[in-house]
Write the structure tokens for this entry.
Amino acid sequence: MRKNIVIIGGKTQSRSLAEILLQKKHRVTVISPDESLCDRLREIDGLNVILGDGRVSEVLEDADINQFDIAITMHDHDADNLVTCELCKKVYGVAKTISLVSDVKRKVLFDAMGVDSVISATNLIAQALEQQTLTDQLNRVVPTGDDRIRISELVVTEKSKVLGKTLASIHLPTQTIIGCIIRNNEVIVPSGATTLNLGDNVLLITTTEKEDEAVRIIAGK
């Protein structure tokens, strides 16, 4: 069923999520105070972009926030996400609120305050696996619905053979892909030009046969 969805805040994540939702034929609006980000987002066909601070009531009202079915908050700080969710749901009557949290321990508080869905960066990646953006890649690389699929979250360390390299230059085993990268609490859907940095959390998707080899390359173990 087509939904009217607003994404409030966020940087790399908001663009990636908006593109996924648009592909699924939802009506999507992004509200962001970042003018340069808004300029880039306006290049996406079908995406409604509003320049403004989504934590402010006047901005939400100008966006007709009460017309949305779902509000997704992606601010850098958990407190801002909670306040925005409270405004959307309890003041303006948005049916469903979804929020990112940087500290998963705060999930209990968000749940108690009535936020419908609370996800950490790791949870976001898990949900992304259900989205078409990764399903298409999995269908090409490994058979889905098979217990041979292995999904690992690895950290790029000083010992990693991939440190400072682009994905295009890394020789991973066959039947192996890097699905997402978490960097400074942002989720990156990588391309061949993406460089792996120290401390990056990498979502590795591979088979049981290739897992050990792929882990050694990424994590330096």
